[in-house]
Structure formats: structure tokens, C-alpha cells
Write a structure and sequence with these properties.
The chain is α+β, with helices and mostly antiparallel strands. It has a single domain, classed as VC0802-like (2-Layer Sandwich), CATH 3.30.2130. The protein is 29% helix and 31% strand. It has helices spanning 9-14, 54-59, 84-94, 117-132; strands at 18-30, 40-44, 47-53, 68-73, 100-103, 108-113. A 6-stranded antiparallel β-sheet has the order 2-3-1-4-6-5. It is globular and about 45 Å long. The protein starts with 8 loop residues before the first helix and ends with a helix.
Length: 133
């Protein structure tokens, strides 16, 4: 299957169009088989990392250390694109905003501290506008 996503960094930045997914999200780790309603899963040697809506984690009494907002970069980025993650991370880091990136086939997704979501959106929109200039 051919990856039809955008590879050019300038084009990617112009088309970022960040959108905030409603809700609060947490990241948890488990070493057991899980049937939890995870929205993202990463299997590591130490255990399985799950991204869940906070209310699901709370209902199952799962410990989590932080609450995140989920922002999707709606540009269809290629899995072989170079520099998008670095540009986004650098822009957010310059404003002191932590960011965890999840790469999907069609889009990149960012988990940022819940209380910094609006700040992160402003930074990303500025990055996209600068790419359009």
C-alpha cells in the first residue's frame, strides 16, 4: 500500500490545522492483558502503554500521573516525512509546553498537559501561519 501522505515540511507546516479532541486523556501502563477501551496502545518490554479517556481510567481505578488534551494535526503527513515532529516539538518546547507524539497512518496526534491545551493550539496555529507566509 502506497503512503499518500505529504512529505514536504513546508507544505506540512502550512497544512497543520490542529484540532483539539474533546475530553481529558491519561497514559497508563499495564503488564496484564487488557480489554480496556484504549485509544492508543504501545507494547514495550516493560508493559503495555495505553492512552485512555480519563473517565475510563478513573472507573477502573487506574493510576495516572497527569491529564492531557489530545490535539490532532489534521494534515495527512507521510510516515516518511522528515522534520514535522522536530518542528512541532521545538515550537512547543520554546513555550515550555511538554508534548508526547503519537503517529498514526494519516495524522500525528499530540498529548499536551490539559491545562496548557489552549497555549499549545496557539503555538501550533502560529507555526502553521508562519509556514504559510
Amino acid at each position: 500500500m502506497e503512503d499518500p501522505g505529504v512529505r514536504d515540511l513546508d507544505e506540512l507546516l502550512r497544512g497543520l490545522r490542529p484540532e483539539r479532541r474533546p475530553g481529558e486523556y491519561v497514559v497508563v501502563s499495564t503488564t496484564s492483558e487488557s480489554t480496556l477501551p484504549a485509544l492508543a496502545t504501545v507494547v514495550e518490554d516493560e508493559g503495555t502503554t495505553l492512552v485512555l479517556e480519563r473517565h475510563h481510567a478513573d472507573a477502573f481505578r487506574l493510576e495516572h500521573t497527569a491529564t492531557f488534551a489530545w490535539i490532532t494535526l489534521t494534515v495527512h503527513s507521510s510516515l516518511e516525512a522528515v522534520g514535522l515532529t522536530a518542528a512541532v516539538s521545538r515550537a512547543l518546547a520554546a513555550q515550555g509546553i511538554p508534548c508526547n507524539v503519537l503517529a498514526g497512518f494519516h495524522h500525528d496526534h499530540l498529548l499536551v498537559p490539559f491545562d496548557r491545551a489552549e497555549d499549545a493550539l496557539a503555538v501550533l496555529e502560529g507555526l502553521s501561519s508562519a509556514g504559510r507566509a
